[in-house]
Design brief:
5 domains; single chain; globular; 601 residues; alpha/beta; Rossmann fold; 21% strand; 19 helices; 20 strands; six-stranded mixed beta sheet
Length: 601
């Protein structure tokens, strides 16, 4: 098969950030219909590289090749709509009015909405609609899932898979990247490494690359040791030979120092759960909450026990942040009773980062007393040293908060919150703007946290890794809670979000048939979520049946109970659980098959 000519390419591109090299010989190319992700730690220059590819930034050296007549769209990390209405903004890049209107409806926003006082989710949806309405050959997406709920993310996934152009995506959302990408570009050691597979294969590949890099550095260190030993042994040899050897040794040491500086430094996060809270953290009985005609909770009851890890999920506007504020006593209920536990030390990181004032400096935020030190989990530390743990450079400490990127503001909030002992940690959309490596560190830290965790997130992978229970709101006053993470909730409550999923499926269709109003017709096939679950069950049921046969074969041994009663009991329990899961899966499969047939016919 002949390789396709790239839409856009950079060759041997270099760029300095002051005296520090940001890119040192970057090569990257995108072909038609290729959906690629660009990954790397915060601060390595991912957004800068995307802007350079789009021609918004000039490199210090290197070449940029662009197909003649290339049309591209760029969805910024923090889009700011302009104009009187969202339709005005969506057509400002040349899109036809009817196309822009259809795309705005497809992404769930009213074209006549004004551009002021928009939420983060509304801005993001409008920016995505504008980009797709322009029908580009190439689309750049910088953290496109920020502020989107799970259903909007699934809409974007379907939209990207149907997109005819190329795409370059910067995102922290693992599940999203695994579902939409076909190639990975890794900004590593100021260069681009390429993996020709989806993000699902990235971790294993990256681990091999890092192991090879570590081995190369170890060999260099050994070579420096040998050269140093030989140099000083020959100190009495001819001066010219010594000068040549000294120059070679200096070059090796400079190479080693440069490699060490280039190696990514991970954040140093830790948390102290402080004094033990009471066993009961919070209890809600018959709680109702509404804003005007919008009912968020109706006769809702739940109990949170010390050590619980509760994820709160649902569409934007369903009341997730409101529920959090009810749980921690920030706002009163309209009806019902809220009881908070004893000895609670709460740290709350809100998604809007409202606690950070734009004119304050980083120094002011971390050491608001004006001193040079900050108390970190009971011990004084210098502000600069503590900030360095969260990857802030000393020169940034006197910069105003408003000059920071989204990821830097998120890290600053974490730095301030984690400095204090807290036995109840409340995180509202903590994954926004964080790179995947930092998310891994945050997950590891939270996994070891022995306090109570309340988590509001749209990141399905993050929820599945951390939550012991998931509480869902549907936006119409209903709530449901089940053990486990997002996938567990959907498996146990397949129809809880059915109305929302059908609306999202209809929005996707609106793009292929532009209209001035949302599509109202009923879907002719299963929603994406239902179809995926049906596909999953088709693979899981044979696996469960095979495992059941294996366990039954073990139990066929008549002497097993007398020889190993513990194994017998464990096998019986596992067999009972698998049989129950298979029975439940078969019932769910039948329901989905009946639903599919009724929609089709």
């Amino acid at each position: 098969m002949n390789a396709r000519a790239p839409l856009l390419a950079l060759k041997d591109v270099k760029l300095m950030d002051g005296l520090t090299p940001l890119f040192d010989g970057v090569d990257i190319a995108l072909e038609p219909r290729v959906r690629a992700c660009l990954v790397g730690r915060n601060g390595t220059g991912k957004s800068t590289l995307m802007r350079m590819m789009a021609g918004l930034i000039e490199p210090d050296s290197g070449e940029r090749f662009v197909t003649q007549g290339l049309r591209f769209a760029f969805v910024l990390q923090e889009p700011e709509p302009k104009g009187e209405t969202l339709l005005d903004w969506a057509t400002s890049g040349g899109a036809e009015s009817h196309t822009a209107e259809a795309e705005l409806w497809a992404f769930g926003v009213d074209p006549s909405t004004g551009t002021t006082s928009l939420s983060g989710g509304e801005k993001r949806r409008a920016a995505l609609a504008k980009a797709f309405a322009e029908d580009p050959d190439l689309i750049f997406l910088d953290e496109p899932t920020n502020h989107l709920d799970i259903f909007a993310i699934e809409t974007l996934e379907d939209r990207l898979r149907a997109f005819r152009g190329g795409a370059l995506i910067v995102s922290h959302d693992r599940t999203f990247l695994e579902r939409v990408t076909q190639r990975c570009f890794w900004l590593y050691d100021r260069r681009i490494l390429r993996l020709d597979s989806s993000y699902a294969g990235f971790d294993e590949w990256a681990a091999k690359v890092e192991a090879e890099t570590a081995e190369s550095l170890r060999r260099l260190e050994k070579a420096i040791e040998r050269e140093t030993y030989t140099f000083y042994r020959s100190i009495t040899a001819q001066r010219t030979r010594n000068e040549g050897r000294a120059a070679r040794l200096r070059a090796m040491r400079a190479d080693h120092a440069e490699r060490m500086r280039a190696m990514d430094k991970p954040m140093d996060m830790a948390i102290d759960s402080g004094p033990v809270s009471g066993k009961l953290v919070a209890e809600l009985r018959g709680v109702s909450k509404a804003f005007g005609d919008k009912v968020l909770l109706k006769n809702f009851s739940t109990r949170i026990i010390r050590g619980d890890r509760l994820a709160i999920v649902g569409p934007n506007g369903a009341g997730k942040s409101t529920l959090v504020k009810l749980l921690i006593g920030q706002i009163p209920a309209d009806a019902g009773e809220i009881k908070l536990g004893t000895n609670l030390e709460v740290a709350y990181l809100d998604q809007g980062r409202d606690a950070l004032k734009g004119d304050e400096t980083l120094w002011d935020v971390l050491a608001n007393s004006g001193s040079d030190s900050i108390m970190v989990r009971g011990q004084p530390r210098h502000v600069a040293a503590y900030a360095k743990d969260f990857l802030f450079r000393e020169k940034q400490l006197r910069q105003p908060v408003k000059s920071l990127s989204g990821g830097e503001r998120n890290r600053l909030q974490l730095a301030r919150a984690l400095a204090k002992a807290t036995n109840m940690l409340v995180l509202d959309e903590p994954t926004n703007d964080l790179d995947i490596d930092t998310l891994d560190l945050l997950e590891d830290m939270l996994a070891d946290y022995d306090g109570t965790l309340i988590l509001v997130s749209h990141d399905r992978d993050f929820i599945d890794r951390l939550a012991t229970s998931t509480l869902a709101l549907n936006g119409n006053g209903r709530a449901a809670e089940t053990p486990g993470g997002w996938q567990d909730f959907i498996r146990q409550n397949p129809d809880f979000f059915a109305e929302i999923s059908q609306k999202e499926a209809q929005k996707i269709k609106a793009d292929t048939k532009p209209a001035a109003t949302p599509v109202k017709s009923a879907p002719k096939k299963l929603s994406y979520k239902d179809q995926k679950r049906l596909d999953d069950l088709n693979g899981l049921m044979p696996k469960w049946s095979a495992e059941i046969k294996q366990l039954e074969a073990v139990l066929d041994d008549a002497t097993l109970y007398s020889r190993d009663p513990k194994r017998f009991d464990a096998t019986m329990k596992k067999l009972d659980a698998l049989r129950a899961e298979l029975e439940s899966g078969e019932m769910e499969w039948l329901e989905l098959e009946e639903k599919r047939e009724s929609l089709a016919g």
